[in-house]
Design goal:
mainly alpha, 2 domains, globular
Length: 253
């Protein structure tokens, strides 16, 4: 029972996060429609002069507010935080909602978009320091004290800075002329679609036989990406699958 319980939790939590995405998408549809109707000159001026420093300060405040909400729930009614459905549907949705909103606003305000597509050494350094702080908090923090609240603030800032690191790198790679980059860009949607079942399979049947987390991580990376690429190549050679997953039939030269 001890060995199966974590596996069941990994399966359920992975699927529940997809539920979080559904909730976020539904909530965001309402919020985005209201944002379009209530965009004002003040918001235009704010985002026209936005900087990573201001954005980091804003997300620091949001992280503190989230931590305060969690702490209040812990004081008022602790069992609610042990409810998996509440944690995923409510708490996880609250945590990721600012990232969803800032992503939508990046399509509206060019200055905001440029912040995420322009490499920032400060964001790279901040993300590395935040990750170190996260590990230290995990190792020396106490769940009975402020470990989870501290983690909320750290991960909020780390998430923002990592958006710059990943998006800036991705933007540069996508504009770099290379057959390998083009190949992975074309394969990215297919890899995303199949990585979920491959990850679950690896976690359920292979992870229990690997003692080291580091070895398990890199083995899983090779396993998932390797098989995903093989499946991608197979689907390219079957017209029906190519049409279903890539959206268009193969063009004959």
């Amino acid at each position: 029972m001890r060995s199966t319980t974590p596996l069941v939790w990994e399966l359920v939590s992975h699927l529940w996060f997809l539920l979080v995405l559904v909730v976020l998408t539904t909530v965001s549809l309402v919020l985005f429609s209201r944002l379009r109707r209530h965009v004002s000159e003040k918001s235009d001026a704010f985002f026209a002069n936005i900087t990573l420093g201001k954005l980091s300060l804003l997300f620091l405040v949001l992280g503190i507010i989230y931590a305060a909400i969690r702490r209040t729930l812990f004081i008022v009614y602790p069992p609610i935080l042990s409810d998996g459905l509440f944690n995923f549907v409510v708490m996880q949705t609250l945590f990721f909602l600012p990232f969803f909103l800032i992503g939508a606003l990046a399509f509206v305000y060019p200055q905001l978009k440029s912040l995420f597509t322009t490499p920032s050494p400060w964001c790279a350094a901040g993300a590395a320091l935040a990750f170190a702080a996260y590990l230290l908090n995990q190792r020396y923090g106490s769940g009975d004290a402020w470990m989870y609240e501290t983690e909320s603030v750290i991960t909020t800032l780390m998430g923002l800075w990592m958006v710059n690191v990943v998006f800036a790198l991705g933007h540069r790679l996508l504009n770099f002329k290379s057959s390998r980059v083009t190949y992975f860009v074309n394969a990215s949607l297919f890899i995303y679609l199949v990585h979920h079942p491959l990850t679950l399979f690896f976690g359920a049947f292979i992870t229990p036989h690997i003692a080291s987390n580091t070895v398990g991580f890199f083995t899983g990376l090779v396993f998932v990406i390797g098989i995903a690429i093989v499946l991608y190549e197979i689907h390219l050679r079957i017209p029906l699958l190519r049409f279903l997953f890539s959206g268009k039939p193969q063009v004959k030269a």
